[in-house]
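Interim report, section 4.2 (structural modelling).
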Amino acid sequence: MSDISEEQNTFTLKSGLAKMMKGGVIMDVMNVEQARIAEKAGAVAVMALEKIPSQIRKDGGVARMSDPSMIEEIKKNTTIPVMAKVRVGHFVEAQILQSCDIDFIDESEVLTPADEERHVEKNEFKLPFVCGAKNLGEALRRIQEGAAMIRTKGEAGTGNIVEATRHWRQIRREIDNLNPSNIEEKAREYRVSADLVEMVMNDQRLPVVTFVAGGIATPADAAMMMQLGAEGVFVGSGIFDAENPELVAKAIVQATLNFDKPDILKEVSRNLGGAMKSLEIKDCAVKYADRNTN
Amino acid sequence: MNNKIINIGILAIQGSFAEHKEMCEALGYSCIFIRNKDELEKITHLILPGGESTTMLKLLKEFKMWEILKDKIQNKNLKIFGTCAGAILCSHLGMNISIERNAYGAQQNSIITDITVNKNSEFYKNTAVENISAAFIRAPKIIVNHSTLSNRASSLEIISEYKNTPVLVEENNFIACSFHPEITKDYSIYEYFCNK
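Predicted structure of the assembly:
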């Protein structure tokens, strides 16, 4: 056979993997044991990192990409996709993660930014990227740079859902406000191509799978985000900072899959023990969501 | 198209179910999302999408859909098309294949390629389709036993192979593939399945 076309690492394949995760929960894990708990609970992917966001908040200092050994150890011991975080703009950390042969890279504002002007040029990488956004402009700039998935930022490590709600509603509102007469103006304002804005107007959604993240601490939080239209959720500190991580992990998966069934939500919300230690947003020393919005 | 009454359902617990619905609707078939056991009773054709097989398997059992599925399959009242993770479910539902998960490696090994249809297959005889565009995303490997193939009573048929491994197979009411036709928007298998 001569002219069989083959393609690898294209946008279709990158965004395709995100499509397989729809309706699911992606969980932050710090070791193999936690990865196993996540997998057993029914997570669709794990995010391997040395410190969950609540600990990063507590410890302060510069938060960086995790040790490759730790990431590879988790990859070796799970069958579901493995993600890991790089600092915003840190393209060398991204090169290292690509060399670890994981499945997805999260260019994350939860880590300390490495570049205040630029994000990673994600189109240049073989691996798909997920990026955070709190409004439509940020989301579209990340997509134009090559992001294959978007997560709304929320405020990670707080256990407080209010910012996640705000960011989701903001993006929805801005999509609703697009119309044929303001496409050009919005494209200039968002600093993206008019074609991209027009596509969003026509489809009434972002052109990539969109999850919610940052502050989900209970099954009800996850179900609320799904009822608002999220395609899945990231749960960071909400699970392994809770009193009973195994129970909470299972309950959040159940709630995400049954987001519109209050009777099931009631059952899975019972007897979970203490939720993670949570924060009012005004008491956060650093608002991660405000990092690198350019 | 014939005049049989068909009711297509797509298991909509997790994964790429919306994309499968778009494929069926583009061909003019209406279909419903299946999220509980009552909806399962209404259908003649079921698509099991890509996603996480462990999650889907668990939920099918918890929602008491598993027994109904098995019954409908036993009574030949249901035709099933499983893609990727859905193929793994087929192997649990009685299809004579086994599956090796993540056999092709991590995401960097994912690939879109054309696969060639075996011209002796029922699929080819019905569709005359020679090539299918296939997206393998962290794909599982379908393993067919030699004893199954050499058994005359078996109706298992390999419709297509890629690098000497079966990637699209049919057996009685089952069709399973290790790739995602909903990602490449290749309609041929849907057309065949809906007329099956």
